[in-house]
Write a structure and sequence with these properties.
Layout: H1 6-21, H2 26-41, E1 45-53, E2 56-63, E3 74-76, H3 80-88, E4 92-94, E5 116-124, E6 127-136, H4 144-162, E7 181-184, E8 186-189, E9 192-199, H5 214-237, H6 243-256, H7 259-270, H8 275-292, H9 296-317, E10 331-335, H10 340-346, E11 352-355, H11 363-371, E12 375-377, H12 382-385, E13 391-395, E14 400-403, H13 407-429, E15 435-436, E16 442-449, H14 457-461, E17 466-470, H15 473-476, H16 484-498, E18 503-506, H17 534-539, H18 541-555, E19 560-564, H19 570-589, E20 598-604, H20 607-610, H21 614-619, E21 622-626, H22 627-634, H23 642-645, H24 653-668, E22 673-676, H25 683-691, E23 696-699, H26 701-711, H27 716-728, H28 735-744
Parallel strand pairs: 9-10, 10-11, 11-12, 16-17, 16-23, 17-18, 18-19, 19-20, 20-21, 21-22, 22-23
Antiparallel strand pairs: 1-2, 1-6, 2-3, 4-5, 5-6, 7-14, 8-12, 9-13, 13-14, 15-16
Helix pairs in contact: 1-2, 1-4, 5-6, 5-9, 6-9, 7-8, 8-9, 13-26, 16-18, 18-19, 25-26, 25-27
């Protein structure tokens, strides 16, 4: 077959639909489909391979190969031409298959040496489901029309696989969304949770992939696209002057008016697909390209197209966000990604959160930590695998999601939860006791916060105050700059809720992965080391002054503690401190009550500040070591990059020596110093930080109990000797020696 007309393609799909319309078993359906395709394509062989697990393909039906090979022939992802198609999700079309790179001869199938090979990925919304293959003895490459026809068939196969049309015996033909799945992601927020899936964006189900009347489908598509365009234009008209938001919507409008996008969907409809299936076919191809795009801008644009496709599908199917499903009483939220405002709308009702995208430093992660909700990010495939109401267990400690777990996993997971609950009871018994070590050292344990919702945790956690209040969350959850009066009222409520305990307010820490939609960011190749935090505050002094005035008015005659983030050199601190003095003078002139005292500190997150002049340490009122950023810059290892971030240990001798040097400089100038970050909340790391001289640690509320418990059972003098001996031996990390010492204790 050298050329195919649209009519012939529709005939093929029509015959496919007839085969699928009956109530034959799944295996019978697949067998008939392979025979039908082979006949229509004029080929000796047609085979369908489906995934039995994430790494293994299984021959599930064939016309032309040995029937005994079905469900017996398997190959690994990337193995042979079939495995190559599945791995790369790209068409392989060759006139000389035996000479093609990666070819594997499979004698168990009884195949002869077929020259021509065409492999088409069977995929849905970027998820690989299998491979459709045709082969012939005639040495020729298949035409563009033939490839296109089989891609349309593969699309239908993907939809019908999703709808359960090919259920049969064996793992490869088991019902989708029914078997247990374990997904390994990345810890965004520690903790464990058991519950049921609640999809943030319910999946659109295409139940009619094949259509009879292409003219009717064209009309439906055009009407839906017109509605989509009107909606995008309306969003643009309401966007206001914000250029960044307008740029995103302009990209939306560009895609919505794309002639090539429309042309491809119209061609799909002409071949026999319904309007919905045509949209989803293009969406699947776009998602596949997202995974292969190295360029960040291109990935963003492809994501825009993905979002538009979802909107178009909802218009065509009438399946809106509200599907009528009822949120379970123990919801585990699943989404590709989610903004901080949307997450706050759910509030503390959520038991856990699982994101397919996201990052450990994203807005969602910050809010999840503030709400103490277990979070797993980078959970690849969760949005396509999970269904509303599915049972799920989230292990935020390990970054693992157990979807539809079997009884053994449920039992082990519940044992872990019971042990944690038992530990929490033990920690509650020491809540009001001081963190005093066996050698008599008193360690102040503070909590991190960022929302009013955090403050009820202050008395119940046993924290002695708030060592870090992240003020940027109030900016991130809004679509415009908050007013000074709003911030002042909020800060006053925070100070009131602390009931006399100190609260250290960190000024606006934006940039890097925390971008305000209403403040145009610079196009930076490395935003983590770019225009962020205090650099933004000094370049935009109006925002900094407004925030300082709001804090002073909130204090209303009470003590005020202010800290500047990401200070890299002494000069930045002096400039920021000058803004505090200006704000104080202005408040004095206006006759407003001034803080009874004000202490101004700096967050040490760059190695450079550790080597600042002596005058800096004498002038600053206090220093907080920001461990998360400091560690990534010390080791030159991006904490968002899974390939490198786990290579470097917090108890590395070099890093501990640097921290100890900072402690000694602060001690020489009598400057209070604390450590704030994830490591402060890890008991083993915490006792080592205390052993090198840190006497104040700030962490999430849930970590205070475990850290206090271990500190009260530790002799820091003995531990300091273990660290010193390990360093003297030339070891790279003190962790093995410390763990051995703890076992002996």
């Amino acid at each position: 077959m050298t050329e195919r007309t649209d009519t012939e393609s529709r005939k093929l799909l029509g015959r496919l639909r007839d085969e699928l319309a009956g109530d034959a078993p799944g295996q019978t359906r697949l067998d008939k489909i392979t025979a039908l395709i082979a006949s229509s394509m004029g080929c000796e062989v047609c085979s369908i391979y489906l995934f039995r697990d994430q790494e293994t393909l299984e021959l599930c039906a064939t016309e032309g190969l040995k029937a005994e090979a079905v469900h017996q022939t398997r190959m690994r992802l990337g193995e042979g031409l079939v495995g190559r198609v599945a791995q790369r999700r790209q068409v392989v079309n060759t006139a000389n298959a035996p000479q093609a790179s990666g070819f594997r001869f499979m004698p168990e199938t009884g195949e002869e040496v077929y020259s021509s090979f065409l492999g088409i990925p069977v995929q849905r919304l970027g998820e690989a489901l299998g491979v459709l293959v045709v082969q012939s003895k005639e040495a020729r490459e298949f035409s563009a029309d033939e490839i296109y026809a089989l891609e349309v068939v593969a699309m239908v196969l993907a939809e019908m696989t999703e709808l359960g049309a090919f259920i049969g015996e064996g793992a490869a033909m088991s019902a989708r969304h029914s078997h247990p799945v374990m997904i390994k992601g990345t810890t965004g927020q520690e903790g464990v949770a058991e519950g049921h899936i609640w999809l943030h964006e319910p999946r659109v189900v295409v139940v009619n992939p094949i259509a009879d009347d292409p003219h009717r489908e064209m009309e439906r598509l055009n009407a839906a696209v017109d509605e989509l365009r009107i909606g995008v234009d309306k969003m643009l008209s309401l966007a206001g002057p914000d250029q960044e938001q307008r740029q995103v919507l302009e990209a939306y409008r560009m895609f919505a008016n794309s002639k090539s996008w429309m042309r491809r969907m119209e061609e799909d409809i002409a071949r026999g697909l319904s309007a919905e299936a045509a949209v989803e076919k293009e969406q699947s191809l776009a998602r596949a390209r997202v995974g292969q795009a190295a360029d960040g801008y291109l990935r963003e644009r492809l994501s825009d197209l993905d979002d538009l496709s979802n909107r178009l599908l909802r218009i065509l199917t009438g399946q809106g966000q509200d599907t009528g499903a009822e949120m379970p009483p123990d919801p585990i939220l699943v989404a590709r990604n989610i903004g901080p405002g949307e997450l706050l709308d759910y509030g503390r009702n959520l038991k856990g959160i699982v994101l397919e995208a996201g990052s450990v430093g994203s807005h969602a992660a910050i809010v999840a930590r503030a709400l103490a909700i277990p979070l797993v990010v980078h959970a690849k495939g969760i949005t396509t695998e999970a269904l509303n109401g599915d049972p799920v267990m989230v292990d935020g400690d390990q970054g693992i999601v157990h979807l539809r777990p079997d009884d053994n996993v449920v039992s082990a997971f519940r044992d872990k939860m019971a042990m944690q609950a038992e530990a929490l009871e033990r920690y509650a018994s020491i809540r009001d006791k001081p963190a005093v070590t066996l050698c008599g050292a008193k360690i102040d344990l503070m909590m991190n916060a960022g929302l009013m919702a955090d403050l009820p945790s202050l008395p119940s956690s046993g924290a002695e105050g708030v060592g870090l209040f992240r003020t940027e969350l109030q900016f991130l959850i809004r679509n415009q700059m908050p007013q000074r009066s709003e911030l002042s009222a909020l800060y006053a409520r925070v100070i009131d809720a602390a009931q006399g305990k100190p609260v250290v307010f960190r000024t606006l820490d934006i940039g890097s992965d925390k971008v305000l939609t209403y403040m145009k960011p610079n196009d930076e190749p490395n935003p983590a080391m770019g225009w962020r935090a205090i650099r933004v505050g000094l370049d935009k002094p109006g925002v900094l002054r407004m925030q300082l005035q709001a804090l002073m008015r909130a204090s209303s005659g009470r003590p005020l503690y202010v800290m500047f983030p990401f200070v890299a050199q002494y000069e930045e601190y002096t400039q920021a401190r000058a803004e505090v003095d200006k704000a104080l003078e202005r408040e004095r002139r206006l006759g407003h009550p001034l803080p009874s005292k004000i202490e101004v500190g700096a967050m040490l997150e760059t190695p450079s500040l550790g080597f600042a002049p002596r005058q800096f340490f004498e002038e600053v009122d206090f220093i907080s070591i920001g461990g998360n950023d400091l560690k990534q810059f010390f080791f030159a290892a991006d904490r968002e990059n899974e390939r490198v971030r786990r290579r470097y240990d917090s108890l590395n001798v070099s890093f501990l020596s640097f921290l100890e040097q900072i402690v000694e400089r602060c001690s020489a100038s009598n400057t209070p110093v604390s450590f704030c970050g994830e490591d402060a909340g890890r008991p083993v790391e915490a006792i080592c930080l205390a052993a090198i001289g840190l006497r104040r640690l700030s962490m999430r509320p849930a970590s205070i109990g475990p850290v206090k418990s271990l500190l009260r059972r530790t002799n820091l003098q003995e531990l300091r000797k273990v660290i010193a001996d390990t360093r003297h031996r030339g070891a790279m990390s003190v962790r093995p020696a410390v763990m051995e010492w703890l076992k002996e204790q």
